[in-house]
């Protein structure tokens, strides 16, 4: 048991840096918080966490090795990710001024307007699932930190802990970004935020397009 706790601690020490590093997931949650409100951002956070388990699952089952060794499969995943990031980037650039009033936010959270839970979850899941970087990230840390003799059930347990921490981090971001003071500040700059986030998503897509399998 102590060996498993040591493995988990080592995984989390590495994963902590990956959680807080800026990327498409953080940009997605921040934009969801600002434009669609707390509920949508939290649901999106769960979508991202669920997607992490998707990556962990195929890594543990060995599919990550196949993808990492196949340029063809890697490129399929990569270009799907590029297309998705550029698509949401263009949508953000074309978005009009968002209504961030208290009434609008409440309407969205009550399900009477705004973004549906399914769409919010799907945005988070796809933003993470269509990024090939986790293939190499989880493949590398699981192969270097986790023993080959560690039971599969324990490895899945590691994944659940990491997914829970990821969700908790992004829920925290969602709560912070939707406080009254933050919302009032962003309400005055909503169009510029959309334009900035759109450029960020497109830039991330271009960066992903230049990534090569190692």
Outline the structure in words.
With 214 residues, the protein is mainly α. It contains eleven helices and no strands. The protein has helices at 2-20, 24-36, 38-60, 63-69, 71-94, 102-109, 117-129, 133-145, 152-177, 180-187, 190-209. Helix 1 (2-20) runs parallel beside helix 9, helix 2 packs antiparallel against helix 3 (38-60) and helix 4 (63-69) crosses helix 5 (71-94).
Name the overall outline. Answer: globular
Largest sheet: none
**How many DSSP helices?**
11
Report Rg.
Answer: 18 Å
**Category from helices, strands and their pairing:** mainly alpha
Termini distance? 34 Å
Give the SSE string: HHHHHHHHHHH
The proportion of residues in beta strands is under 5%
- By DSSP, the count of extended strands is 0
- Poorly predicted regions are 99-112
Tell me the domain tally.
Answer: 1
Mean of the pLDDT scores? 79
Q: Helix content range of the residues, please?
A: over 70%
Entry keywords:
0% strand; 214 residues; mainly alpha; 81% helix; single chain
Q: Any chance you could write out the topology, listing elements then pairs?
A:
Blueprint lengths: L1 H19 L3 H13 L1 H23 L2 H7 L1 H24 L7 H8 L7 H13 L3 H13 L6 H26 L2 H8 L2 H20 L5
Helix pairs in contact: 1-9, 2-3, 2-7, 2-9, 2-11, 3-7, 3-8, 3-9, 4-5, 4-8, 5-11
Give a quick summary of the entry:
This protein has 214 residues and is mainly α. Helix content is 81%, strand content 0%.
